């Protein structure tokens, strides 16, 4: 049973940490020579990096979440749970999973290991730095509700 203030905090956290990607027609060239379609969401993500410790970016599959995050946060370590070894480690030994990661870090496809949320909260709570963990995943109710319940107080 949450009181009104707790419900408001959870709602604000959801709004702060979740965004819908909108494509913009501006094309910029990346250092590798590949073309990149800039997105309106970039400013929201940059602002969130300064306001909260953990950012969760969800959306439909194949809309460019990973491409956008890797472009905006090029200096972050990148880990994808599409990698079977990383996924196995995330599911079987969450402490070891985080031990060899450099922060800030992007954890892509987090919907495959929703069990990581409690460990992410613990890692985030150990530091006062903002924007240390960015999570991406396909939009599912289960991922959204797990993240909202677990990470609400870690902003």
How are the strands of the biggest sheet laid out side by side? 3-6-5-4
Distance between the termini: 21 Å
Average pLDDT for all residues: 79
Main sheet: strands, sense, barrel: 4 strands, parallel
Task: Provide the succession of SSEs.
Answer: HEEHEHEHHEHEH
Task: Evaluate the radius of gyration.
Answer: 15 Å
The shape is: globular
Q: What's the quaternary structure here? A: single chain
Strand content: 15-25%
Count of helical regions: 7
- Spans of at least 5 consecutive residues whose pLDDT stays below 50 are 18-30
Helical fraction equals 40-55%
DSSP summary, beta strand count:
6
Instruction: Decide which structural class fits the backbone.
Output: alpha/beta
Describe this structure in words.
Helices cover 45% and strands 21% of the residues. The chain has 155 residues and is α/β, with parallel strands linked by helices. The strands form two sheets. Strands 3-6-5-4 form a four-stranded parallel β-sheet, with helices on both faces. A two-stranded antiparallel sheet has the order 1-2. Helix 6 links the parallel strand 5 (105-108) and strand 6 (133-138). Helix 6 runs parallel beside helix 7 (141-151). The longest helix is centred in the first third of the chain and has 14 residues, at 4-17. The chain is globular, with a radius of gyration of 15 Å. Mean pLDDT is 79; it is low at 18-30.
């Amino acid at each position: 049973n949450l009181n009104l203030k707790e419900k408001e905090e959870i709602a604000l956290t959801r709004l702060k940490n979740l965004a819908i990607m909108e494509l913009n027609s501006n094309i910029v060239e990346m250092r590798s020579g590949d073309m990149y379609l800039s997105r309106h969401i970039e400013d929201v993500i940059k602002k969130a990096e300064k306001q909260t410790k953990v950012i969760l970016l969800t959306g439909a599959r194949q809309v460019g979440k990973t491409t956008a995050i890797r472009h905006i946060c090029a200096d972050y370590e990148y880990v994808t749970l599409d990698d079977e070894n990383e996924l196995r480690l995330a599911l079987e030994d969450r402490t070891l999973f985080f031990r060899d990661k450099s922060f800030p870090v992007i954890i892509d496809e987090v919907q495959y290991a929703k069990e990581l949320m409690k460990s992410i909260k613990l890692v985030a709570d150990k530091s006062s730095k903002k924007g240390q963990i960015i999570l991406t995943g396909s939009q599912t109710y289960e991922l959204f509700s797990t993240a909202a319940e677990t990470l609400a107080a870690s902003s």
